[in-house]
Write a structure and sequence with these properties.
By secondary structure, the protein is mostly beta strands. The chain contains one helix and five strands, in the order ββββαβ.
Length: 89
């Protein structure tokens, strides 16, 4: 079954943070270290957030292939999750 979305060239990958509409959870998408060129994997890390909408408590992690990662990214965006810009340190 083909995905019903397009995300551009094969080097494009979901990267960064999404914040849920309530501001209570944040998910971080990052490329796995040392991936093979033909088997790109993305880690997702779901966290609870504090009153400043900063990551505060770890909930879970998942390793996804590029198509599943884009599917999750687009699904969350359709549910109202917004891109968040957070830098540790």
């Amino acid at each position: 079954m083909e995905p019903k979305y397009s995300f551009g060239c094969s080097t494009s990958k979901p990267n960064g943070y999404l914040l849920n509409p309530e501001g209570s959870r944040m998910i971080f998408f990052e490329e796995c270290k040392n991936p093979t060129k033909h088997n790109l994997k993305i880690h997702t890390h779901l966290s609870y957030t504090n009153h400043l909408e900063e990551p505060e408590g770890y909930k879970s992690s998942e390793k996804l292939n590029i198509y599943s990662a884009w599917g999750k990214w687009h699904e969350l965006r359709q549910k109202g999750w917004i891109e968040a810009y957070y830098h540790y340190g």
